[in-house]
Design goal:
The complex is a heterodimer of chains A (about 400) and B (about 425). With about 400 residues, chain A is mostly helical. Helices cover about 70% and strands about 5% of the residues of chain A. Chain B has two domains: about 180 residues, no CATH class; about 180 residues, no CATH class. In chain B, the strands form three sheets. Chain B has a two-stranded antiparallel ribbon with strand order 1-2. Classes of the chains: A mainly alpha (about 400), B mainly alpha (about 425).
Chain lengths: ~400, ~425
């Protein structure tokens, strides 16, 4: 008993130490964000539009989650009956059960997907058609199914080899797969070189300042499906890139604002956020896999197909339970990237301009409710981001 | 278990063909008067069909005179198609009289039909016409997309099976003076299904066409058993609606796996080809590997096309799937046929391509049917099984598993030789 307790304590200590290491940030601990009154930066109509859009989007999200969990509970209870539709042996049957579970969840969420699309179309945030969304989603399930089958093959394969300790070898495999996907991620989208010479020159300057030289800046074509502006940092080592959506460089944002975006994304790369993402994933993968192994013991463990529907339910529930923490981690890294952008561009006015422009272009609430903040926001709120820019401006003005 | 279809195909053909008229170009030229005649007849039938439809809607039964007219037209077009596709030898008459041609059809007397079914007949007939089009070219399946004046793509599945059978049968008949039984049976089946679809559309009967090849060719001698044939548990036709709805995404993982396996098979078969060429017999290990691949292929395609219900395994094991493949042990093979295997494969590939079209439509139609009813249609399932059997035989031939040439007959092989073959052997 004491030995087990000491092992658990040692593992917890190691987990905490790793988490502390990953939590390190360049944002000064002494930085205090000033109170920002959203009405100072946004008009009443902008705030009203964002609030009205978000309230419905929130309810759709909640509805989707409730339906998803309900379907998975039912499936965990009755899903075993689909074993009679398989002639594939235990592992193949497990894969079938996993895929059917995902398929049922997708099917149950179709009304919410369609309603969400209607809401986005109504607000001119997307131009994707209903048929494309439903039929494309149906076909897109195939890719998800393939990944799910690989995951189940790993889990069930180890469970057949080492019994209920499968989570110990399986978690590193999943971390390895996460690393692989992080490495190849950018090749999964179609991009082209950035044509804006001035922005390219600024990017080259920022790369030098942030210590990530020769990082290609590419543009992804998304305009046919959405009007939302976005950018992301992707890849690691030789595959690292900054990907800018073409909706960001369509003239709605000024050159200085775009520079802030590029500096922000380079900040992610400079601070190794993709590596840290994988690190955090590893920290959650071990206890998550262990929890699934424990929960499915009553169904004979993960080597048997009947455990798969229950494992899906546990996995999704764990994901939702971890969501506030995951969002907090993501917001922490985004805040650091914002800080890097401010330090690099030394242009807080442009940053504030950029954040102000996000409200009319994305209908994002500048200061969302606590519920939204905890469960749905993986970036600092716009008010917080403006606050950081103001704090930077103040500290820059005070420094000699 | 199944009531015989009232539109019954009669095959009394002895497979002999006149070499002078066997070449398809010659046949076509001879058939020109018939083609003009059938065009005129079709125009008349168009108006007669409208009159027949209105009269049947009012009376609930098609008028005797119009019924006879429709039957003659359908029988005539069946005779003519049989002649063009070399399913029959003699030059057909122009009146579509019963019993005058070795490939013939018997129609029922006019009887009372449900008025709703009469009213909606054109829509109800669409699935049968699509399948008929894929088999024998009536109904005209044609899909076109044109997004720009200069860009246009189209797909037509019209009559691929009958064209393939006619073309190959023409060359075979020129050489041997006999139509291969497999090709004749396949053509007769396609023509018979087309006649049933036509009869349904033109209100000759209210029974829906039955795609089951065994029922269609009842009374026709079965071919000898091919070393590559389907076996397995009787299919209960039950289909899980959920797995039917998501059949394509569910099969994706198997398709990727098959794709990877195919790469390995390519190299294995090349090596095995050399081994067979030098030693006269395929290597046992490569043979086993290829057999597992062929079974896996069958299981996956059967699952994907809804010919079978369960999700298949990943190793092509024998005896674990309701639709399975019996394959021969490695045996001596003729070195000449081994050397020229790829070229010899081409005719079989033509028929396989044609059957793939039919299989595709079977899968599409079964998908809707199974979603609605939770089961597969017996006829479509058996047609799909026929296509899969031929597919397996061509694969086995190409991949050196068997030296036996694929047999195109829709009928399953009989363990004992039957009448036609005994007669042919005696001749």
């Amino acid at each position: 008993m004491i030995r087990r307790a000491s092992v658990v304590a040692a593992l917890a200590a190691a987990w905490t130490a790793a988490a502390w290491f990953l939590w390190q940030t360049k944002v000064p601990s002494s930085l205090r964000l000033p109170h920002v009154d959203e009405r100072r930066f946004f008009t009443a109509s902008q705030l009203h539009a964002a609030s009205s859009y978000s309230s419905v989007a929130d309810w759709l999200w909640i509805g989707g989650v409730i339906v998803q969990l309900s379907v998975l509970v039912l499936y965990a209870w009755r899903g075993e009956r689909f074993t009679r539709d398989s002639a594939a042996g235990p592992m193949g049957t497990g894969m079938l059960l996993g895929m059917v579970g995902f398929a049922l969840v997708w099917l149950a969420q179709v009304p919410f997907t369609v309603l969400g699309l209607w809401w986005e179309r109504r607000h001119h945030l997307t131009s994707v058609g209903y048929f494309d969304t439903v039929f494309g989603g149906w076909l897109g399930l195939g890719t998800e199914f393939v990944f799910l089958c690989v995951a189940l093959a790993v889990v069930m394969g180890f469970a057949r080899l080492v019994g209920e300790w499968w989570w110990l070898p399986a978690a590193p495999v999943f971390v390895g797969l996460a690393l692989l996907f992080a490495f190849v991620d950018l090749w999964l989208s179609t991009t082209h070189a950035l044509h804006d010479a001035r922005l390219r020159a600024a990017a080259t300057r920022f790369e030098r300042v942030e210590g990530v030289p020769h990082t290609p800046i590419v543009v992804e074509r998304v305009r046919r499906s959405t009007t939302l502006p976005n950018a992301e940092a992707a890849g690691m080592g030789p595959s690292r890139r900054v990907i800018v959506w073409d909706t960001l460089v369509d003239g709605r944002f000024t050159e200085r604002e775009l520079e802030v975006v590029v500096a922000h994304e380079l900040g992610h790369l400079a601070r190794h956020h993709i590596w840290k993402d994988v690190g955090w994933y590893a920290l959650f993968a071990f206890p998550g896999a262990w929890a699934i192994a424990r929960a499915t013991r009553r169904r004979g463990g993960m080597s048997l197909p009947p455990a798969v529907p229950l494992a899906l339910l546990v996995l999704v529930v764990l994901n939702y339970l971890a969501l506030p923490l995951q969002n907090a981690i993501s917001r922490h890294m985004e805040a650091e990237a914002d800080w890097m952008a401010l330090r690099t561009t030394r242009d807080p006015a442009a940053a504030i301009g950029l954040f102000r422009r996000f409200v009319p272009t994305t209908l994002e609430e500048p200061d969302p409710s606590t519920f939204d903040y905890l469960l749905r926001e993986n970036h600092p709120t716009l008010v917080q981001r403006i606050g950081m820019a103001e704090a930077y401006a103040t500290s820059a003005a005070q420094s000699p | 278990m199944h009531q015989p279809h009232p539109v019954r195909l009669v095959v009394e053909d002895d497979l002999r063909r006149n070499r002078w008229t066997a070449f398809f170009v010659v046949r076509f030229i001879f058939a020109i008067p018939h083609l003009i005649w059938i065009f005129l007849w079709t125009v008349a039938v168009f108006f007669a069909a409208i009159a027949n439809w209105l009269a049947s809607l009012v009376r609930g039964t098609p008028p005797q005179g119009l019924h006879r007219f429709m039957c003659s037209y359908l029988r005539y077009s069946l005779h003519l198609t049989s002649y063009l596709a070399l399913a029959g030898n003699p030059y057909p008459g122009f009146l579509g009289e019963e019993g005058e041609y070795p490939i013939d059809v018997r129609f029922p007397e006019p009887s009372h039909q449900n008025r709703w079914s009469i009213f909606l007949r054109l829509f109800l007939a669409l699935p049968a016409l699509v399948l008929s089009s894929a088999l024998a070219g009536s109904g005209g399946t044609r899909f076109s997309t044109s997004t720009h004046a200069s860009r246009s793509t189209s797909f037509s599945g019209g009559g691929a099976l009958i064209v393939a059978c006619g073309l190959l049968g023409s060359f075979a008949s020129l050489v041997r003076g006999r139509m291969p039984k497999g090709l004749r049976d396949a053509a007769a089946y396609a023509i018979g299904y087309s006649a049933q679809a036509g009869a349904y559309l033109l209100l000759v009967t209210d029974r829906y066409p039955n795609a089951d090849p065994t029922a269609m060719l009842e009374g026709v001698d079965r071919p000898p058993e091919h070393p590559v044939h389907l076996v397995g548990a009787a299919d209960d036709l039950r289909r899980s609606r959920v797995t039917v709805l998501f059949r394509l995404p569910l099969a994706l993982v198997h398709l990727i796996w098959l794709g990877l396996w195919s790469i390995a098979i390519f190299f294995a078969v090349v090596v095995n080809w050399f081994i067979t060429l030098f030693t006269g017999t395929p290597a046992r290990s490569f043979h086993r590997f290829t057999c597992a691949y062929l079974r896996q292929w069958l299981h996956v395609v059967a699952f994907l096309t809804l010919t079978a219900n369960p999700f298949p395994g990943f190793v092509g094991e024998f005896g674990h799937y309701p639709l399975d493949l019996e394959l021969p042990q490695p045996a001596r093979q003729n070195r000449w046929t081994t050397f020229f295997r790829l070229f010899l494969f081409v005719p079989a590939a033509l028929v396989r391509g044609a059957l793939s079209g039919a299989l595709f439509w079977c899968a599409v139609l079964t998908w809707f049917y199974a979603l609605a009813t939770g089961s597969a249609s017996w006829g479509l399932r058996n047609l799909a099984a026929y296509a899969l059997r031929y597919d397996a035989q061509t694969n086995a031939y190409l991949l050196l598993v068997s030296e036996a040439y694929p047999h195109a007959s829709p009928l399953e092989g009989a363990p004992e030789p039957q009448h036609e073959f005994a007669e042919a052997a005696a001749a």
